[in-house]
Amino acid sequence: MERTSTKRLPIFEAAVAVFSEKGFAKATMEEIARRAGIAKGTLYYNYRSKKELFLSLIEEGIERLEAAVKREIARRRDTSSKLEALIGAQLSFFEEYRDYCKLLLSEVWGLGSRWEKQLERLRSGYIGIIKDLLQRGQAEGIIRQDLEVNTAAMGVFGAVAVAALNAFLFERQYHYESLLQTLKNLLFLGLNEREG
Amino acid sequence: MERTSTKRLPIFEAAVAVFSEKGFAKATMEEIARRAGIAKGTLYYNYRSKKELFLSLIEEGIERLEAAVKREIARRRDTSSKLEALIGAQLSFFEEYRDYCKLLLSEVWGLGSRWEKQLERLRSGYIGIIKDLLQRGQAEGIIRQDLEVNTAAMGVFGAVAVAALNAFLFERQYHYESLLQTLKNLLFLGLNEREG
Amino acid sequence: MERTSTKRLPIFEAAVAVFSEKGFAKATMEEIARRAGIAKGTLYYNYRSKKELFLSLIEEGIERLEAAVKREIARRRDTSSKLEALIGAQLSFFEEYRDYCKLLLSEVWGLGSRWEKQLERLRSGYIGIIKDLLQRGQAEGIIRQDLEVNTAAMGVFGAVAVAALNAFLFERQYHYESLLQTLKNLLFLGLNEREG
Amino acid sequence: MERTSTKRLPIFEAAVAVFSEKGFAKATMEEIARRAGIAKGTLYYNYRSKKELFLSLIEEGIERLEAAVKREIARRRDTSSKLEALIGAQLSFFEEYRDYCKLLLSEVWGLGSRWEKQLERLRSGYIGIIKDLLQRGQAEGIIRQDLEVNTAAMGVFGAVAVAALNAFLFERQYHYESLLQTLKNLLFLGLNEREG
DNA sequence: GATGAATGAGTCTTCATTCAT
DNA sequence: GATGAATGAAGACTCATTCAT
């Protein structure tokens, strides 16, 4: 039940910025309001509480990630290309929304029990897409049969997420193409050099 | 300069439990003291502040992880076995200290700028070990040359960490062997079924 | 200067309901507006402030009580019947407007200094009627001379009010006739069994 | 489970003063602390919340009233004297603790549903004492049989309470003896002049 | 060494009131 | 006349930290 739409966008952006800089607990409604250029009361006019504001951010972000990835996948025919596109889409999403993604990993991923609903949303949403592709790939014989898909899906997500955040947040400079290529090589071909 | 008190072990355990359940900001010194069976003042007698207590936990944890992994690595001769052992050691460490590892990912990893020193410690410490092994492997020709080692090291760490936490924290039951095998297969051999 | 709006009646009823459920301080203009089926701004179009709305309620209520009692009194000839009628009228008013009367006792009576004007209104209004009747009765020799009229008038009001509210608000079921009879017996004849 | 006793007395007195001046909702913890000469945090160290502080006040007050009245009653032999003593004791309690009694009537009596437990405490406690005496009196034939005891007990309480508060809080000067005598005459003998 | 009562700065949240439409 | 989005002052409550015993 969205209220005014005029105010919600600036609030959204300010909130993502503050939450990702300070973390959920250290972020203050005061600062979010100030950065959004509105009064504190207006924040509460639009969102019932700090928690609701936070959760709506997470929800919205997960939806955007899903949408972005689905769009890219839909463009490819074969499962292999789809998986490749998925990795590319996740990486590019993490690059564009690095602040939001930091939030995603630190608050939602790290904690868990307190945000069960949102976690489940992520798992059945984005992780579910990876899992489906892996299963289809196994059926088609192009993905190794000896992979348990849940674990493998989490592994793929984790590898991209951690490598991406490390590069985008903590490296002064990074080479996007090299990052993407290394992740694809690692995940599709593995660490091992193929012998002869 | 550690104080010599015999109180530090129970404090350590209580602190890990509370911090990982509540997160840094929501954890209270009151509760840590209560769970450790001591008075709040005693906490401050042993640690200057909440932050110092927290950081000493993280420090200690990273050291344990490094030590555990190094021990396993030292037992193997060839680089390949060492890498395999490293993944096993990380997984087993995450299983044993799941609470601590949740902390590690949510507070230290997710945030960053605020704990730079600790992050750097993790990166140059544990991630550094992975990186060194990968480099040695490339020199020996058993690791793919087309992998940028920093990215690959982060990818390996992230894949294991995320898959492990998901299994240990959120799955009612998990099959440790299958988890380990899938991660090894994924990381060493890649997703692709080898043709021919 | 009452505004002419047709909105004032629904507002009145909603306001009495909300104020008596929550008390003055916990009642919100928001809820009063919602229950009256109007917008918050409209409330302020009709009443300058929360306090004014509240006071106009109290004023109105005291006037209704006075009017009801005066009407009943006017019907009787002798002072004794008038006093009897007064008690009956107060009891029946408290039964019909129990919410309003709860308000009256809790906010106006209990506090005092803050609403001096309204209190004075009540005292010189309704209590004044009782006092006048008692004085007339004393002059006529049908009311005990050893009663100080101010105190007695307050005592009569208090006995009826407290017994009435207790019955109407907190007893699941009550017997109106028995209530009335007991109050009349208590107040006119006293507790003591007459000897001889 | 009382905490420190050193701090609780000044808090008690400051709280009664502030609550009775402002009412529950308008009273602030800040002001109570200031008047008690302690920091706000200390208030919360001794009482979990504003509500708990308030309720403990009410509880304590009801107990004191009960104790005072029981003490006086115990000194008399016959039921009639006991009832007389009860009225005297209530009046003198209301004179001494006028602030507290204002609180009692405005917050607890007036509201009700929100403080059910405390109300019940009062009803079964103090009102119960009156009721018991009336019943015993009826059995002994010295109290009118045509009085329903619940109603009569409430009436007695209400008459004394309302007359007392009016005198002690709002009259510049009052004559205690006259007040007491009028109430006793009113309640024991009734309004009616005895004919013949 | 150990304790826990006391502190007060810092936050979330509520709500009467205003005003542009 | 009517609306409801926006405001900001005010207040309950938390908790890291201190210090006298």
UniProtKB/TrEMBL annotation, chains A, B, C, D:
Q: Does the keyword Transcription apply?
A: no
The entry's keywords: DNA-binding
As given in the record, the signal peptide range reads none
DNA binding happens at which residues? 28-47
Q: What residues does the HTH tetR-type domain cover? A: 5-65
Q: Which SUPFAM superfamilies match?
A: Homeodomain-like (SSF46689), Tetracyclin repressor-like, C-terminal domain (SSF48498)
Q: Which InterPro entries match?
A: Homeodomain-like_sf, HTH-type_TetR-like_transc_reg, HTH_TetR, KstR2_TetR_C, Tet_transcr_reg_TetR-rel_C_sf
User: What's one GO BP annotation on this UniProt entry?
Assistant: regulation of DNA-templated transcription
Any one GO molecular-function label of the UniProt entry: DNA binding
Q: Which PANTHER family match?
A: HTH-TYPE TRANSCRIPTIONAL REPRESSOR SCO4008 (PTHR30328:SF54), TRANSCRIPTIONAL REPRESSOR (PTHR30328)
Name it.
Answer: TetR/AcrR family transcriptional regulator
